[in-house]
Each structure stands twice: as structure tokens, then as C-alpha cells.
Automatic annotation (TrEMBL):
Name of protein: tRNA N6-adenosine threonylcarbamoyltransferase
Species the sequence originates in: Peribacillus deserti
Domain Gcp-like: 27-310
Family designation: Belongs to the KAE1 / TsaD family.
Predominant place of localization: cytoplasm
GO molecular function, one term: tRNA N(6)-L-threonylcarbamoyladenine synthase activity
Compartment list: Cytoplasm
UniProt keyword list: Acyltransferase, Cytoplasm, Iron, Metal-binding, Transferase, tRNA processing
Job description of the protein: Required for the formation of a threonylcarbamoyl group on adenosine at position 37 (t(6)A37) in tRNAs that read codons beginning with adenine. Is involved in the transfer of the threonylcarbamoyl moiety of threonylcarbamoyl-AMP (TC-AMP) to the N6 group of A37, together with TsaE and TsaB. TsaD likely plays a direct catalytic role in this reaction.
Pfam families found in the cross-reference section: TsaD (PF00814)
Length: 335
């Protein structure tokens, strides 16, 4: 049988990414052009700058992915592109590149939800087993997603305010660390002890929703109050305490949901999945539950990439999902 080759395109935020995935599982190319250096001095992603970089990079990144995969347009089974959620101007570059290629080379086109991509990053390292639960923690999202089969996503809990990554980035900024702050807090937390008392937002009994803005404010207030009193706070201890609070809530809720929904697999997904403390805490939470398989993706599949978008595209293609040239960027796309 002929191989299925999906070209994935991802431009929802600050990475211009293109990948080629064979038969839904094998990465033949996974090119990511990061813009982090251009956004750093602004302390966060500037949408207009992101769009401009995507325009400059997209053609080269597509050509590089095809070169690395050793294929040309005639070999591609379908093009999968992130249609949302994300920055509208950034998404538009990927969507229009995908539509142009689809039209010019007569290749089927498929729109993909960015978060489903983060979840499917796990399929590039292992077979998915249903029913499963995905803990998605990224810069824009914090969600518990239940899947009873391929391409079926039920959000059973989500953040009511800040996403986990957003809280990391804001706390990092308060501690004068560069953007994106998550990895810096993670590193600093390893050097400190979680001795500072910070709140945990459990919300109503039984809720799988999250809230991180109270925690973020508590960190800022702790620093501010100490400054006013002339006290010294060890930033490493503050980072460790913040990280422990985030992880405690994420892991407790994921564990409870996994048991209640009787899942076979738990997947970690999204940029914050790169967090060392979170990876370790999840691993030890599930170590005594052999009937649930915990899957944690390697670091290069945690942050934004296009292989994960192609991985979803593969499944949607099999299911017969196709987009036409009316496909548009949808910054608020629902799962
Ligand atoms: O998934 P992602 O690449 O982009 C979105 O779709 O949002 O996630 C980026 C987020 C940023 O907030 C970044 O600070 C966070 O992931 N992040 C981390 C770590 N590495 C990246 N947060 C905590 N610890 C890390 N090691
Ligand atoms: Zn992402």
C-alpha cells in the first residue's frame, strides 16, 4: 500500500513550523523556525511581529521540510494546517500557505485544532489507547480532555482565567527573567525549597476546572510585601513554592479524573509538559497504578511544532475530513 504522507503546517503563535509525517506515526521532517529572540525584548509575543516573521519564513520552512523528507509535492497525501486557536494574523499565514499549495498542486486540505495537535504529539512516540485522558498545559491552555476514540475530544475541565504557562511567564517576569519564563522558573525551582506558603485553587468539589490567577497574584504580593518590610525572599524558594502549587493541583485533578473516567492511558501535552517538576510528579503519581499507562512526550514534541499537526491530520484524513478553499483562521476555535 502507498504510504500516507501528511504535510503539517503550524503558525499559531511564535514558531513557523512545517513537518512531514508518514502513516500518522513516523516523522520524516520536523522543521521549527523560532522567533523567540525577536519577542524577548518585549517580554512576550508581539502579534504583528509574529505575523511578519511567519511571512518571511514560511516558504523556506516548507521547502526545508520537503528537502529533509526527500519528497516533492506529488508525494503528499494531504496538507494539515492549524486553523485555530491562536493569533489571527499568525494563523492566517499558515492557512493561506496551505490553501495556496492545496490549490496549486491539487492536494487535499485539512484544518486542525492546535490543542488536538499537542495531544497527538504523543502518537508520534506510542500507540494511543482509548479511552484516554490528556492533560494539556500550554501557554494559552490548561485543559483535561477525555477521548473515547480517535479525533473525539471532550473537554472535562479547563482554566477559568490564566493558563498554567501564562502564570509561569508572568511570575518569571516579576522575577525579572526573560520570556518565555517557564523553563527559567523550572530551573530555579530545582535550586530552592517549597517553604513559602502559597494558595492552591481547587474550586468547587468535584470540579476539573483550574484557576491560576490567584496564585500568580499571591506570588506578586509575597514579593511586594517582603520588599516593603525590607525582608529578603530567596527567589529559588519562591519559584519552588509556586511550581509546587501549580503541580499539586494539575496532578491531583488529572489523577482523580483518570480514575473516575476509567481510562487506559494518560497523556501529558503542551509546552508546560517540558517542566521537569511536573514530569516527575506525574510519574510518581501513576507509578502505583499499572492499569493506567502514563505517556510523557520528549521535549521537542512538547512545545509548538508541526509534526503534531500532521499527526492529527493523518487521523482526520482517514476519517474523511476535508476543508475547501473557504478555510479561514479562527482565533477562538472550539475543540
Ligand atoms: O505549547 P506552547 O509551546 O505554546 C502554546 O501553545 O501556548 O507552550 C508555551 C508555554 C510558555 O508559557 C512557556 O513558558 C511554557 O510553555 N514552558 C514551560 C516550560 N517550557 C515551556 N513552563 C514550565 N516549565 C518548563 N520547563
Ligand atoms: Zn501550543
Amino acid at each position: 500500500m502507498k504510504d500516507q504522507l501528511i504535510l503539517g503546517i503550524e503558525t499559531s503563535c511564535d514558531e513557523t513550523a512545517v513537518a512531514v509525517v508518514r502513516n500518522g506515526r513516523d516523522i520524516l521532517a520536523n522543521v521549527v523556525a523560532s522567533q523567540i529572540e525577536s519577542h524577548k525584548r518585549f517580554g512576550g509575543v508581539v502579534p504583528e511581529i509574529a505575523s511578519r516573521h511567519h511571512v518571511e519564513e514560511i516558504t523556506f520552512v516548507i521547502e526545508e521540510a520537503l528537502r529533509q523528507a526527500g519528497i516533492d509535492y506529488n508525494d503528499i497525501t494531504a496538507i494539515a494546517v492549524t486553523e485555530g486557536p491562536g493569533l489571527v494574523g499568525a494563523l492566517l499565514i499558515g492557512v493561506n500557505a496551505a490553501k495556496a499549495l492545496s490549490f496549486a498542486h491539487n492536494i487535499p486540505l485539512i484544518g486542525v485544532h492546535h490543542i488536538s495537535g499537542h495531544i497527538y504529539a504523543n502518537r508520534l512516540i506510542t500507540e494511543l489507547k482509548f479511552p484516554l485522558l490528556a492533560l494539556v498545559v500550554s501557554g494559552g491552555h490548561t485543559e483535561l480532555v477525555y477521548m473515547k476514540e480517535h479525533a473525539s475530544f471532550e473537554v472535562i475541565g479547563e482554566t477559568r482565567d490564566d493558563a498554567a504557562g501564562e502564570a509561569y511567564d508572568k511570575v518569571a517576569r516579576t522575577l525579572n527573567m526573560p520570556y518565555p519564563g517557564g523553563p527559567h522558573i523550572d530551573r530555579l525551582a530545582q535550586e530552592g525549597e517549597p517553604v513559602i506558603k502559597l494558595p492552591r485553587s481547587w474550586l468547587e468539589e468535584g470540579s476539573y476546572d483550574f484557576s491560576f490567577s490567584g496564585l500568580k497574584s499571591a506570588v506578586i504580593n509575597t514579593l511586594h510585601n517582603a520588599e516593603q518590610r525590607g525582608d529578603h525572599i530567596n527567589p529559588a524558594d519562591l519559584a519552588a513554592s509556586f511550581q509546587e502549587s501549580v503541580i499539586d493541583v494539575l496532578v491531583t485533578k488529572a489523577l482523580r479524573a483518570a480514575k473516575e473516567y476509567n481510562v487506559t492511558q494518560v497523556l501529558l501535552a503542551g509546552g508546560v509538559a517540558a517542566n521537569k517538576g511536573l514530569r516527575a510528579a506525574l510519574t510518581s503519581a501513576f507509578v502505583d497504578i499499572p492499569e493506567i499507562e502514563l505517556v510523557i512526550p520528549p521535549l521537542y514534541l512538547c512545545t509548538d511544532n508541526a509534526a503534531m499537526i500532521a499527526a492529527v491530520g493523518s487521523v482526520l484524513y482517514e476519517k474523511g475530513k476535508r476543508a475547501d478553499l473557504a478555510l479561514n483562521a479562527n482565533p477562538g476555535l472550539e475543540m
